Amino acid sequence: MQSELFAFDHLTWPEVAALPRHTPLVLPLGAGYSLEKTAEALRFPPRLGLLPAFPFGWPASGLAVAEPLLASYIANLLNSLRDDGFSQVYALTPPGVELGLGASQLRLPPAENRLAQAADLPAQADLEKVILIPIGHIEQHGYHLPLSVDTICIEAIAQGTARAAPQLAAALPVMPYGVSTHRQAFAGTLNAGGRAFEDFWLGVLNTLVGRGFTRFYLLSGHGGNSSFLVNVVKYAGEQHLQAFIATAWLYLSSPQGVAALEARRQSKIGGMGHACELETALVLHLRPDLVHMERVVDEIDFITTPSYYMDWVEGGALVANPPWEDDTRTGAYGAGSLGTPEKGRFWLEAAVQEKAGHVSEIHEQYARRMARRNGTIARP
Questions:
Q1: Distance CA 94, CA 32 (A)
Q2: Nearest alpha carbon to residue 362 among 252, 208, 209, 246
Q3: pLDDT level of residue 251 (50, 70, 90 thresholds)
Q4: Does 18 fall in a domain?
Q5: How many separate domains does the chain show?
Q6: CA nearest 176: which of 144, 220, 142?
Q7: How many CB atoms lie within 10 A of CB 306?
Q8: Is 264 exposed, middle or buried (0-12, 13-18, 19+ CB in 10 A)?
Q9: Assigned domain for 106 exists
Q10: CB-based contact 158:286 (threshold 8 Å)
Q11: Is the pTM value of this prediction over 0.85?
């Protein structure tokens, strides 16, 4: 007997909503597991959904944090699925990892012992580089885009930046799980929880600073991560005076990035928010096989006032978090129908240039601050 396996993050939210709630869903820690043995451990269900692999956090992953930090993160993700009504959700882990999940934890040795011999992440050869830390999410993106949009986009930007500046930057594997404080209305959106998210990433930075790394750039592909990453940067910056740790609002948010958006966008304000012209274009360029343009619905009827409105670089003086269903029926904010692969290629290149420029600035900030502290540069 065999199970039909499917990638959970390749689905759209209506497809998740239609899944039978007894469908088993598995979140693996790392890669290399036997899918047949995974299905066997669950007694070969007719269908089995696999979530993206959690890339690191336990000792054999090459980048460990304190076990309670990892456990809280994973537990919150599984609870998101339970909140959506799924009754069989599991973390798949190597032996020796204890997350306190009881029957919701499956333990299987990775095939060919791939994880046991994992090299340190990042490599010690990258000690003088800016370490790029890309963080995406699993979140609904309307009728036409998969749950993995934010992860796909920020992984491509981080890897592109590392390739563009190989002597200056190195990228960690992308983290596909972040924070969503608005997840009830549309199925499939996960939530690591703000406090667990902050604690985990502080733990990651603590580990890396302890190894001697001193420059970090936390890259987010998901707006819901951003305020929590600002907190991480503030806490870590206060704790690690010998390091320079930075983040930014998503991507294409600098003056040069906004100019690149304006150079090709066709939508008016409100057309670039979520599952929009920009995100649709990027995924059409990067993963066209996951886009369903025949299902796209443009929604730009955001409740707008002078100090509060939705666009890629959010505007206005007010910060709020109203229910998404006030403004969208489909989960989209923006004009996804205007996305094209050509725009996606152009905007991806612009995002990489923006981030490469930030990497250079981080190096400059670090060097000048160290020089001033050492007294080799006089204060003005």
A1: 10
A2: 246
A3: very high
A4: yes
A5: 2
A6: 220
A7: 9
A8: middle
A9: yes
A10: no
A11: yes
The pLDDT of residue 116: 44
> What is the per-residue pLDDT for 317?
87
Domain end among 89, 118, 147: 118
Single out the residue in 64, 94, 118 at which a domain terminates. 118
Q: Which residue segment(s) compose the domain that 112 sits in?
A: 1-118
Reduce the DSSP state of residue 326 to 3 states and report it: helix
C-alpha R_g of the chain: 21
CA angle 352, 355, 358 (to 5 degrees): 155
Residue-wise pLDDT tens digits, 91-141: 999 999 999 999 999 999 876 545 444 678 999 999 999 999 999 999 999
- Tokens 């054999």 belong to which residue? 60
Query: Would you say residue 326 lies in a domain?
Result: yes
d(C-alpha 18, C-alpha 310), whole Å:
29
Cβ-contact 361, 130 below 8 angstroms: no
| Residue 150, phi-psi category: left (phi > 0), alpha (psi -120 to 50), beta (remainder) | alpha
- Helix or strand holding residue 204 (H, E): helix 194-210
Q: Specify the 3-state DSSP secondary structure of 330.
A: coil
Evaluate whether 73 touches 57 at the Cβ level (below 8 Å).
yes
- 160 is a domain residue: no
Measured in degrees and rounded to the nearest 5, phi and psi for residue 168 equal: -115, -20
